[in-house]
Amino acid sequence: MNTLDPKIKIEIIERSLKCFWLGLFSLIPIFGIPLSVMALRHNRRIRQLRAGQWNPADRYRYWGAVCARLADALLFIAATAVIAFFTMLNHWPTYN
After folding, report:
1. What is the three-class DSSP state of 94?
2. What are 49-88's pLDDT values in tens digits?
């Protein structure tokens, strides 16, 4: 069985915890945009380093990525709603 270097295991666990906290704080409006990007970067790096090995902090990585993706989806929906509102406001009939 292929085992990882202990330094890499430590990095995977630390990045999993960082991914969780960054993903959780990415749900804060406006402030969370860069945090969601960082959480998803940590998630991608963990998946590259892991290479099929067991990660004891995998649930933190998973939920951090879920929160970051949820924050991105909410941001997209809010931006779309604002754009649609101002577009409709611009084309609203005025009766003078």
Report:
1. coil
2. 887 788 889 999 999 999 999 999 999 999 999 999 988 8
Torsion from C-alpha of 47, 16, 26, 66, nearest 10 degrees = 60
What angle, 0 to 180 degrees and rounded to 10, lies between the N-to-C axes of helices 33-50 and 6-25?
Answer: 150
Q: Is 0.85 topped by the overall pTM?
A: no
Query: Cα 46 from chain centroid?
Result: 14
- CB-CB contact of 26 with 68 (8 Å): yes
Among 67, 15, 11, smallest CA distance to 41 is for 15
Quote the pLDDT of residue 88. 86
